[in-house]
Amino acid sequence: MEYEVKTDSEIEESGIAQQVLGDAFAPCQMFHVRLSEEGEPRGLIGPRDVDIIWERHILNSAAIVPFITQATAGQRYKTIADVGSGGGFPGLVAAACLPDHEFTLIEPMERRCEWLNECVALMGLHNVHVLRSRSEDIIVQMKKDRTIHPFAVVTCRAVAPMRKLSAWTLPLLKPQGQLIALKGRSAQEEIEKGAASIAKAHGLHPHVVEATVAPGLEPTHVVIVDKR
Question: What are the residues whose beta carbons fall under 8 Å from the beta carbon of 69, sequence distance 6 or more?
Fold first, then answer.
């Protein structure tokens, strides 16, 4: 099926964003305004994305939410680490959609951490902590002093291919935790090429799921890996 990317004005006129985001629409709308004004100059989105922020970034990020809720169902501590948060995808959007979950946004670049903290305040998110660090350093810290506890879920989008991503994400998870990564059309190929790395990092059952973005919009791909 052929899909045509919808512009922000088309999304707003259709009411799709309100339908998909529900109570999270208001904070995500504030995020959208800030992105449209500052996203390109601050190097957070490309010039071609300025008019398609809703579909390309916000609704695409929200597509991960049902997988997070499924992974944390029945768990006491609904803790999420979003690795390489960058402009806030998917971490900020997912946090707005899931106020009963605790999100740690892991981002090594200072200017991006500043942006994330600005958006956390703007969106009124009380369930988000921005951590300036690399995931590799957090993994070392977790092994040394255990001041950071393993997470129930790790999320990410467009960070690295699975052969590298496995080592950066799976060690952050508690046993039976889950990596939920937004990926492109080459997701299955990434899994096949990264099979040895996934297994080395104690990952199990890697698979690709097609995720609904919104009615009439092109679905996205999610890679799910269980932690042994």
Answer: 98
DSSP symbols for 66-133: HHHHHHHTT-S--EEEEET-TTTTTHHHHHHH-TTSEEEEEE--HHHHHHHHHHHHHHT-SSEEEEES
Contact 204, 227 (CB under 8 A): yes
CB-based contacts of 111-115 (< 8 A; 24+ apart in sequence): 111/42, 112/44, 112/85, 112/86, 112/87, 115/38, 115/42, 115/44, 115/87, 115/88
Is the pLDDT at 1 greater than 80? The verdict is: no
User: What residue type is 55 in one-letter code?
Assistant: E
Instruction: Quote helix, strand, coil % in the chain, to nearest 5.
Output: 45, 20, 30
pLDDT digits (tens, 9 = 90+) for 188-199: 999 999 999 999
pLDDT in tens, 52-82: 999 999 999 999 999 999 999 999 999 999 9
CB-based contact 154:173 (threshold 8 Å): yes
Residue 2 pLDDT grade (very low, low, confident, very high; cuts 50, 70, 90): confident
Max CA pair span of the chain: 52
**Nearest Cα to 65, choosing from 135, 197, 155?**
155
